[in-house]
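Format notes (please read before filing issues)

Several people have asked whether sequences and structure tokens are stored in separate files. They are not. Every record keeps both together, in the order shown below: the sequence lines, then the token lines. Line labels are part of the format and must not be stripped during preprocessing.
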Amino acid sequence: MNSSDHGFNPAFNMAAIKQVFNEAVERVRMPTPMRLRDLIRQIRAARTATEEREVINKECAYIRSTFREEDSAWRCRNVAKLLYIHMLGYPAHFGQLECLKLIASPRFTDKRIGYLGAMLLLDERQDVHLLITNCLKNDLNSSTQFVVGLALCTLGAIASPEMSRDLAAEVERLMKSPNAYIRKKAALCAYRIVLKVPELMEIFLPATRSLLSEKNHGVLITGVTLITEMCEHSPDTLQHFKKNFSVVVGKGKKSSFKDCSQEEIVPNLVRILKNLILAGYSPEHDVSGVSDPFLQVKILRLLRILGRNDAEASEAMNDILAQVATNTETSKNVGNTILYETVLSIMDIKSESGLRVLAVNILGRFLLNNDKNIRYVALNTLLKTVHLDTSAVQRHRTTILECLKDPDVSIRRRALELSFALINSNNVRTMMKELLLFLERSDPEFKAQCSSSIVLSAERYAPNKRWHLDTLLRVLIAAGNYVRDDVVSCTIQLVSESVEQQGYVAAQLWRALEQDTSDRQPLTQVATWCIGEYGDSLLYGDVSVSEDPSDIVRVTEDEILDVYQRLLWSPQNTVITKQYTLLSLTKLSTRFRSNVERIRQMVQQFGSHLHIELQQRGVEFTQLFNSHAHLRPALLERMPPMEAIRRDNGSQQQQTQNNAVNGLLDVADVNTDDSTVNSDSNALLVLLGGNDPSGISTDSEQPNVKPPVSVPASTDNQDLLDLLGGLDMGVTAPPPVAVNNMNMNNNVHSTNNNNTLLLDPLGSLGSLSSSTPTLSSLPSMVPNSDLSSLVAYEKNGLRIMFTLEGVDIPSTISIVMSAYNETSLPLSDFLFQVAVPKTFQLQMMSPSGTTIPPSGSVTQILRIQNPNKGALRMRMRISYNTGGASVQEQAEMNQFPAEGWQ
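Then the structure lines:
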């Protein structure tokens, strides 16, 4: 009988019969495992997390038992369930080797699950993934496009540098495949290889160029993506694409090269983009009426990269960018995406001025969109491009100011930043009016930033002193307690230098001070300082010189003292505010013609105050009314006009802070002569945390200390004493006579990251101390003569004591630093840093801890060698965290006894 009569198939050989038989035996021997859909149903039916874990643990145990079998007919199903378990967040690493077995299987269904498992369970951090390199190479040479696609997807997902080097040639070959499906996936795989091994970029250049001539949109978008990646991460490749790209033509040893200039790649992209925007309806590429928006966005991004800093390439793409900007449909979000990318390209290349105006107008239309995301993107983009064409952005100033009223907090924040960027000398009055209204109505989170920015803008563009002062006063009133400390110091500095406006300012501040100012502490501080300095003009000023009769204030000495009485004893006022008020009250004793005795009694009451800062001032100022009354007029006279100090962003200060190693400051050794150090009254106008170090000795035994780096001296901050400035002046300077350094630093109002003028509430008392006799009876104003214990720092509940101990080494002393926490909160991340002149040698031991509990302490040993036996001057930086806030303070200590070196 003929075999064909019975339907005999030659392919049905003995091997196939054996496989079918084994699978049948396997099914009979082992029960059929649960299907994936049944497992999902059970997991979703679990009512608690415990029940879910029980289901998953039971199924994982079963899967492990089946994996122990050499030839399991259900391996594919079990791995699929294991992948679902892995996606739920449960461990599934024990299935990694089973994925490798499925990849090696000849069946496509097994390979598909195996490669999926490899992408999910394997990565380059695990050595197991290297075992599939050979399988990937075999599948990349498969005759089935779907198997090749699986291998390319997996390689693009988990490729390591080693795997990329092994298979880069195979991927480059597949990029030239006649199958568009394979070329697309090969380009994406090449993208991953270029990211992992940039030096392999060169072998993909010829094949990548050929992808731009494709008609298939999928291949085009992957080709553009690959070229974009190459150009962004390799300047040489960017120039190669723009100037001279060589394409291999032919095969074998007789290959020839064709030079393609820049005019070929940019016009090619322009041609593709033009076909997209002018093409008719295409169902396979249409998205909301726009033809292939994804490809358009990719091409626009590549054009932006190619046209950056290239006038010739920018000129070639100007026309197409204008067409895209005018012909794109804006009623759909897809069109807005293309317009946004077009605006970025126009602003980034060397485009024409008219095209830039068109781009800004597009962003202006975005601001009128109802979609909050589009408005936010428009504001963010305008903020980045406002410096390129400010006049074009100014046309949309009204719309931008309207965004300040938007209910969305992110939009308000971006609109606020953009509004300050638009301020100039022509519109400063209009803009400030709107911004002050915003400040009055804004949420507390905006008040600090807005008030500081208004002060900076007013300082830069103020048309006159009167307007500048009125603006600062409105800021102090509108922002309340959210005003930053730099606003207080800036206002005081401006008042001190505006001699003609001092009476007017004192009158305006008195009106504000008469009201309840408990929620405006900075305003109270400025008001009391000004009234203390210029109270006589408020009481006895010439009213005939006033421009406006409404500016005239009728006030008596008793009315002022009544207000001061309320301020000093109000529990709502802070200690800093009371310090300002107490000093102002003491100065008024020299401005008033009577009521001196009442002022003395008010000041004397603070001699027994619970707070040590106020008690210290009460005792000191009381002495000025008693035994040292003859010194009071000279000490409390008006402070001279203060010079404005240029601000910067404080980044150098932060950098200096970050360079601290083991308690020592890593700073530069800069030559400083005597002429650059101001040793007069400017010592009380201290900029804490400066960036111009001069002459510092660091511990040579510290292994982690970096070598000194040359830092140019800043001529703008020569009058300020920073952490190191003034420590090494070429000569040994005697210590100050009257003002204790601890007192000076305690009286500094506060600091911030800006190099801002900080004012001492002691005012002229400190400024005149260097020229007045020693006040021997004032306990806190004389140097501590105790050779064994010195108070180095005391503020905000932190007290630092220095205990001097002798050592056997000549000209060397040991200082035990003890930091005491007198607050009810722990001080964490405590860091104590020291700087000394370079004529000294400093060694710091490790501290006993970095956290100081309440009523606890931390100690650290400092060893200082002084070969020249000169006077020791020391700058200290203290930083810690308390109550969720970070505190950083700086102080100077130069009251060390000379006998300690003997």
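For reference, the curators noted about this record: The chain has 36 helices and twelve strands. Confidence is low (pLDDT under 50) at residues 1-12, 244-263, 648-787.
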